[in-house]
Amino acid sequence: MTNLLGMTLEELHDVVAGLGMPSFTAKQIAQWMYGKQVSSIEGMTNISARNRALLSTQYGIGCQPPCDSQHSVDGTVKYLFPTEDGKMVESVFIPDGDRGTLCVSSQAGCRMGCRFCMTGRQGFGGNLSATDILNQIYSLPERNQLTNIVFMGQGEPLDNLDNVLKVTSILTSDYGYAWSPKRITVSTVGVRNGMQRFLDESECHLAVSLHSPFPNERVGMMPAERAFGLKDFLRLLTCYDWTHQRRLSFEYIVFGGLNDSDRHLKELVRLLSPMECRVNLIRFHDIPDTPFRGVGDERMTYIRDYLTRHGVMATIRASRGQDIFAACGLLHSKISHGETDKP
Predict the structure, then answer these.
(1) Residue 90 catalytic?
(2) Residue 46 and residue 18: Cα distance in Å, rounded?
(3) Which one of 90, 156, 225, 251 is the catalytic residue?
(4) Where are the alpha helices (DSSP H) in 202-291?
(5) Is the pTM of this model over 0.70?
């Protein structure tokens, strides 16, 4: 059985043509899925009963509800979703006044190996399909409260670029969710080739995980620096226009005694002040068996004010869901002998 969820309108046209159905049926299917989010083909009531039965012989919607959830004292909810091939991934819903943000996963685990990240420690379990990624949105209990989506869950989105671009296309297309690209942010450690393609083919926001302005220090935290050096991808980023709707941001986890000195801040200013960007300062959330440590509020405020004073807009990201291991760098789930392992 092939899943329809995650198919583009062009692919849906191929489906109905292969079954001998009228071409307009493709648009009807898209409207039922992405507009009305039906859970079954039988619910597509303006398609004839004969064609619904025919479609059901080979296809299903492919939506799967979360199989577990954890609720934080701050209102954040972490969900565990099954994938098409039997893995598990986590996504996080973050309510904030009239905003609702969903942090989605693009891979089961991650192969980037960042030393401060629980997902990186999990290892790589495979790319998620467009169905798997979109299902985190489609089957979210709070889906009607969503205002923003960030690809900052498990995995490196630009390491699964085809499926991430496919999902963002569906989210922003008239036949799909018809969202503005300004509601979507895709994060990366700096996969240069994927970054260039993403910037050429998408209008969504980009967030780059930086964490140190010095390559020789960054590589100790992020082994991907060897393959995707910050000097290289920063040169690429200067080739694009960031003065209009698309936003460029840099994620910077602050580690005490490691990347929080004035020397680091001066180099950040030197590297980033020529660009129209912002820096999101993130508190480090302790994980077992790591030499990294966080800093206090006073130091976080000092770093924010220093950068802003020197022409680099900086904000301190509020930590959400730490008590349920839903904060930045804490997502970690896998299936082992039929059971879910959590941090």
Answers:
(1) yes
(2) 20
(3) 90
(4) 215-221, 230-237, 262-272
(5) yes
